[in-house]
Amino acid sequence: MSHKVQLEQQEDFHFAIHFGDSIPPLHADEAPPLGKGAGPTPDQLLAAAVGNCMSASLLFALRKFKQAPEPIRTTVEATIGRNAENRLRVQRIAVRITLGVPGSSLQHLDRALAQFESFCTVAESVRQGIPVDVEVYDSAGARLK
Q1: Per DSSP, which regions of 4-138 are E strands?
Q2: Torsion on CA atoms 86, 89, 94, 95, rounded to nearest 10
Q3: What predicted TM-score, i.e. pTM, was given to this entire model?
Q4: What are the DSSP E strand ranges found in 1-145?
Q5: 130-139, pLDDT tens digit by residue?
Q6: How far is the C-alpha of 13 from the C-alpha of 110, rounded, in Å?
Q7: Rounded mean pLDDT of 4-33?
Q8: Closest CA relative to residue 30, chosen from 46, 16, 14
Q9: Cα torsion 46, 52, 53, 55: sign
Q10: What's the rounded Cα separation, in Å, for the pair 55 and 6?
Q11: Is 92 helix (H, G, I), strand (E, B) or coil?
């Protein structure tokens, strides 16, 4: 299985991100001074992906036991800092998930909490480090890298 996403530059650092025919494009941009802040930054998109995956994984784990924790609210904070080469990197992602019901009202909560993180494809992949292969082509289709 794979997922294909296409990005199309609108202007400067503003890109339209296309996920497929049935999903409207998402617009992303860098914050000023690079961009105009016309959409979430790549760092914010990564944080959102991790938070959404963790939230959905917890919901999945609880629903396996026929529990209803809704509504779930999640806050994610990505800490950005400089590495040894003075390049900005995501150094930490903190996820806080709040269930919409008291924990005492959910059966098997301890079992769901023990296993839900392993269901999250995105966060578990980020934790391990993901190889990223990059190719660069020119407008004539010639591979540059």
Answers
A1: 6-11, 14-18, 26-28, 73-82, 88-98
A2: 170
A3: 0.90
A4: 6-11, 14-18, 26-28, 73-82, 88-98
A5: 777 888 998 8
A6: 44
A7: 96
A8: 14
A9: positive
A10: 25
A11: strand
* Predicted local confidence at residue 86, as pLDDT: 98
The pLDDT of 85-104, averaged and rounded, is 94
Identify whether the C-beta of residue 124 lies closer than 8 Å to the C-beta of residue 118.
Answer: yes
CB 52 within 8 A of CB 42: no
What sign for the dihedral angle of Cα 40, 15, 131, 81?
negative
Q: How far apart are the first and last CA of the chain?
A: 26
Tell the residue number behind the tokens 């998109």, with chain if given. Answer: 45
Contact predicate 16/7, CB 8 Å:
yes
Q: What residues contact residue 34 under an 8 Å CB cut-off, 6+ apart? A: 12, 13
Strand-pair partners of 77: 94
pLDDT at 14 over 90: yes
d(CA 37, CA 30): 6
Q: Can you tell me the distance from the alpha carbon of 125 to that of 14, in angstroms, rounded to the nearest whole number?
A: 27
